[in-house]
Amino acid sequence: MDWQGQKVAEQLMQIMLVVFAVAAFITGYVLGSFQLMLYVYAGGVLLTTLITIPNWPFFNRHPLKWLDPREAEKHPKPQVVASSVSKKKSNKK
Amino acid sequence: MHSFGYRANALLTFAITILAVICALASVSDNFNSPSPSSQVQVLNINWFRNKPDGDDEVSMTMNISADLQSLFTWNTKQVFVFLAAEYETPKNSLNQVSLWDGIIPAKEHAKFNIHTTNKYRFVDQGSNLRQRDFNLTLHWHVMPKTGKMFADKIVMTGFRLPQSYR
Questions:
Q1: CA–CA separation, B68 vs B77, rounded Å?
Q2: Is B84 left (phi over 0), alpha (psi -120 to 50) or beta?
Q3: What is the end-to-end Cα distance of chain B in Å, rounded?
Q4: Residues B51-92: tens digit of each pLDDT
Q5: Distance between CA B9 and CA A82 in Å, rounded?
Q6: How far B129 CA lies from chain A's nearest CA (Å)?
Q7: Among residues A47, A66, A53, A68, which one has the least CA distance to residue A1?
Q8: Do A25 and B8 touch (CB under 8 A)?
Q9: How far apart are CA B84 and CA B82, in angstroms?
């Protein structure tokens, strides 16, 4: 997942769980069944798990742009300690 | 949310916290229930009434206990524990409570009952104070929830008296 995807996944998880909790409580209260409330909530937790935990493609819509290794060779690292903008995962050749 | 395990942990913790909140809300919802229970007890017969060799009085009686406790049940009720206690005053104790019968009501359908029984537990006094003693029969109940707070209440039925002499 990219950074944007991680934020979306976390928000989605929190919102979905709260929505399912409210829906479960209202359903259980109106129909007078404690067991039904727990079933609805359990189903909601399972659905949320399936949507937010695996690394789905739609969480990776803003992928990080890693610098190409050949490009990195053309611009060697300066001797002076300078703050680098992008984290380089380049392998040393 | 860096990895699979991180997200799984966050989700599980949040889900369980919210579950605790739901259960607390379910318990709070019990306060909105206004029950209207009723009960009646008749003492049909005093089977025997004696002074035991150790000095304490004991009486055995047959009773007819009828009650309608259906309004006590909510969606968050697991069971209702009900017991009948004989309550009286003696010179030594300002309040004596002796449990004569109890039962567990597991569901609303069983909450309206009419029981013909002798006392399940022995009615024994601390001493020999029972002759011609006035006593109340009080039906106590505890509404045990599935989650949260337990409610207890009672109905006091007065007007009972034990015989003047041993039989």
A1: 16
A2: beta
A3: 81
A4: 999 999 999 999 999 999 999 999 999 999 999 999 999 999
A5: 37
A6: 49
A7: A53
A8: no
A9: 7
Mean per-residue pLDDT of chain B: 93
Chain A positions in Cβ-Cβ contact with residue B18 (cut-off 8 Å):
17-18, 21
Contact criterion met (CB < 8 Å) for A41 and B19: yes
Judged by DSSP in three states, B160 sits in strand
**The two three-digit tokens of residue A43, written as one number:** 């189903």
Give the pair of three-digit tokens for residue A93: 């050749």
- In words, the CATH class of domain B35-161 is mainly beta
Q: Which residues of B touch A14 (CB under 8 A)?
A: 14
How many CB atoms within 10 Å of residue B93?
A: 13
Rounded to 5°, angle at Cα A85 from A82 and A91: 90
Closest CA to B147 of A10, A17, A41: A41
In this prediction, does ipTM exceed 0.85? no
